[in-house]
Amino acid sequence: ALQEFVDGDGTFPTTILIAIIIFIIRTRPIVTKSVRAPMTKPSTPMGNLQKLPLCDKCGNGIVGTVVKARDKYRHPGCFVCSDCDVNLKQKGYFFVEGQLYFHQ
User: Fold this and answer.
1) Counting beta carbons within 10 angstroms of the beta carbon of residue 30, is it exposed (0 to 12), middle (13 to 18) or buried (19 or more)?
2) What's the rounded mean pLDDT across residues 17-33?
C-alpha cells in the first residue's frame, strides 16, 4: 500500500514521512511511570536528637541557645521561676529541691 507513495528514486517524500510519524505518535499508547524520590533513613532510631541536651523543665531537646544552671539544662524561655514564671535571665535565683525560684 505504501508503494504508491514512493518517489522515482525509491524514497518517500518528506510530507509522507512526517504524516507517518504523526500517525505513529497519535496512535501509540501513552505510558507513564510513577517515580518516588529516594528516602534516606537516619543512622540511629532518633537521628541526631540523642545528642541534644534535654530541657529540665519541658523535657524537649534543646537546639541553639542553652541555659545551664547547676547540672540542669533549659531553653532560654524555660529558664523561669517555678512559682511565678518570671524569666530568671540576669536575675537572682536559687534552687529548692531541684526547682528554680526567683530571689526577690
Assistant:
1) exposed
2) 76
The bridge status of strand 93-96 relative to strand 72-74 is unpaired
| pLDDT higher than threshold 90 for residue 54 | yes
Backbone angles phi, psi at 51, to 5 degrees: -90, -10
Q: How sure is the predictor about 44, in pLDDT bands with cuts at 50, 70 and 90?
A: low
Give the Cα separation of 77 and 54 in Å (integer). 14
Compute the half-sphere exposure of residue 100: CA atoms within 13 Å on the CB side of its CA.
24
Place of cell 544552671: 69
CA pair distance 58, 49, nearest whole angstrom: 15
- Compute the C-alpha angle 15/16/18, nearest 5°: 65
Task: Give the separation between CA 74 and CA 77, rounded to whole angstroms.
Answer: 8
Q: Where are the beta strands (DSSP E) in the chain?
A: 67-69, 72-74, 93-96, 99-102
The letter for the amino acid at 2 is: L
Cα 80 from chain centroid (whole Å): 32
